[in-house]
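TA notes, week 10

Several of you asked for a full example with nothing omitted. So below is the full record: structure tokens for the whole chain, then the designed sequence directly under it. When grading your own attempts, check the secondary structure regions first.
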């Protein structure tokens, strides 16, 4: 893999093309990286107790490492 945790990268393809961010985590076996502020999806969370409420949270998902390049 050509990138590692902590590198600043730019997204080359996809819906977040042109966005930049820092790599929070790398997954070498699947060749994916988790970039902060990129590939954000809304996830519905069930309530946990009778009194608790369900909510919609935003979560970042990994993208393929070939779709990013190191920011110079």
């Amino acid at each position: 893999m050509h990138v590692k945790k902590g590198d600043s990268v730019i997204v080359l393809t996809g819906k977040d093309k042109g966005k930049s961010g820092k790599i929070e985590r790398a997954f070498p076996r699947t060749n994916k990286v988790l970039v902060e502020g990129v590939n954000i999806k809304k996830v519905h969370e069930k309530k946990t107790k009778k009194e608790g409420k369900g909510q919609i949270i935003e979560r970042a998902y990994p993208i393929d490492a070939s779709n990013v390049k190191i920011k110079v």
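The first strand starts at residue 8 and ends at 11. Use that as a sanity check on your answer.
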